[in-house]
Amino acid sequence: MSSQDAAPGDGTPNAQPSSSTASSIKSFISGGFGGVSAVLVGHPFDLTKTRLQTAGPGVYTGAVDVVKKTLARDGVSGMYRGIVPPLLGVTPIFAVSFWGYDLGQKLIFRFTPTRESKKLSTSEYAVAGFISAVPQTLVAAPVERAKVLLQVQGQGGNEQKYKGVIDVVRVLYKEGGIRSIYRGSFATLARDGPGSAAYFAAYEVTKKALTPAGSSPSDLNLGAVIFAGGMAGVAMWSIAIPPDVLKSRLQSAPNGTYSGFLDCARKTIAADGVTALWKGFGPAMARAFPANAATFLGVEASRKLLDKYI
């Protein structure tokens, strides 16, 4: 977000900036650029993570083996398989996420009218972050479902069932309607709720730590904001992997494999042990900093251009 927007940033409600139509449009567009930047940088890591999480025993020996086999079979373009769904979904996902974060902050202020401080505490930032994940899930869950199915097809010699993202949606709807498209929604919220809480809290804490005495976080240079964004990504993925593993398995498994989130957790642990819940941790953490640094770089750079010309 731009330093001209209060969320995330200075701990005060984003009342006037968010009420401006022009500012809302700029935030939406710059958030989309940030999301596109994150996908372009982070997708190969994400594909590696997802394939590790969903492959059967013995298919891969580790993250490097996933990359080697993918490149050997499909070339460099294979590392970007399944990229269309997140590219199509990043604009609304990021827009809704940051809108939800702003809403969460406003709700906290509304329900604490007698508070003495006009700034939120770290725990309150975390609560606002968790709130942001609720509306975000409505957009993110079907995008994640399509992305996962495209990422995992072809591994282990499986058939190429889907021709592209539109074909995924068409087949899923034919097989089970809207419910099939939204499979894994609870798992998505279980990942993004705590993850977003850690993400936004870490972002605010890092910005505060980098702010010189007597200055405001809104005065930080671009490098500091990028670093804060990268650290926010690391904080999120340090706790989000277990529900992400279950989400990937739920969304990629044939119909009837799991009855729900808890059943997936039980069967995963029974079959592969507790350590299975941490599959893909390496690629996720390798992706976390550069992808989220790219996010904030895209947001800030595009917002400055928009402010200059619009």
Automatic annotation (TrEMBL):
Membrane topology: Multi-pass membrane protein
SUPFAM superfamilies registered for this protein in UniProt: Mitochondrial carrier (SSF103506)
Pfam entry (one): Mito_carr
Disordered, as annotated region: 1-23
Keywords assigned by UniProt, alphabetized: Membrane, Mitochondrion, Repeat, Transmembrane, Transmembrane helix, Transport
GO cellular component: mitochondrial membrane
Positions annotated as Solcar repeat: 22-107, 120-209, 220-305
Listed GO biological process terms: carnitine transmembrane transport; mitochondrial transport
Transmembrane segments: 83-104
Subcellular location: Mitochondrion membrane
Secretion signal, residue range per the UniProt entry: none
Record GO terms (molecular function): O-acyl-L-carnitine transmembrane transporter activity
Cross-referenced PANTHER family: CONGESTED-LIKE TRACHEA PROTEIN-RELATED, MITOCHONDRIAL BASIC AMINO ACIDS TRANSPORTER-RELATED
Family: Belongs to the mitochondrial carrier (TC 2.A.29) family.
Name of the protein in question: Mitochondrial carrier
Organism: Rickenella mellea
Lineage, broadest ranks: Eukaryota, Fungi, Dikarya, Basidiomycota, Agaricomycotina
